[in-house]
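Listing S7. Sequence submitted for prediction.
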Amino acid sequence: MAEGSDEVLDLTLSASTPFIPEIEIKVDLTSVKCLDSQVGGHRGIFLSSKDGKVLKRCIAEEINFYRYLAENGISEAFFPASPGTIVLSMKIDDEVITDETYLVMEDLTKAFNHPSVLDIKVGTVPWGWPITEEKLQKQKRKREATTTGKLGFRITGMKMWMPSEGKYDILDRSFGHHLVPEEVPPAITRFSENAKVNVLTSFREQLIKFEEWEKSYGTKNLGFHGASLLFIYDAEPSIAEPASPRLCLIDFPHTEYLNTGVTPKLEAWKEDDHDGMLFGISNLLKIFEEVASERS
């Protein structure tokens, strides 16, 4: 996700709420720093601590999703683990943050020496509800103007460690916004430039597992709108403890719960792929296979 700044934040904790009462929320609040260079998001939204936690400023809808995972016993590896929420007050730069709720999550990059990260917004219905007609039409135009409409996903950021240069190469969301479908495989090749072929194979295997879960459970119970797949690998791994590549689904503020008896708010309801997730995953699998075959 990101590297932290050097400044340790002065925090005040006013409340903590575990998703499962028996599980205690543990965070080293004496070592929390602001994440300066995450692939997506704004400064102050993400914080990190030395004990391997990421704190994400979030809204009730995203908290509800993690509570849903806990209550339904969903613990698949492609969802970042979260024990619950804490309420914090602090000052970041000139912004005073008072009693903001932060989701406590595992730091997905903690195990990596020099993590390279790819953020892909997946699905063909990336907006949530309620939404005005004006904004809906704007979102639809954006979908058709990007690879979201044509491939079912869009690259929203890449952060790549360059061993030969000893620094990161970072591409923001504008890079992916202007890509056409034919330019996506070269972009994935660029992201995986410093990865071994087995890294691409691992990503593909994890995508297949997520696709299987989506077919068996996701499409029957959940609508993911605006969620992203995060691909992480170590571009310069530690010889002593090399970390395995990781694939995770993140960002859930617009998730729909389809088993509530409420008709999904989609313009084209499809029982087997209502949010376009499977369409996007299928195309991602083809591209990762293509890139891997070119490398082998």
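Caption to Listing S7: primary sequence and predicted structure tokens for the chain studied. The chain has a mean pLDDT of 87. The chain has two domains: 4-106, 115-295.
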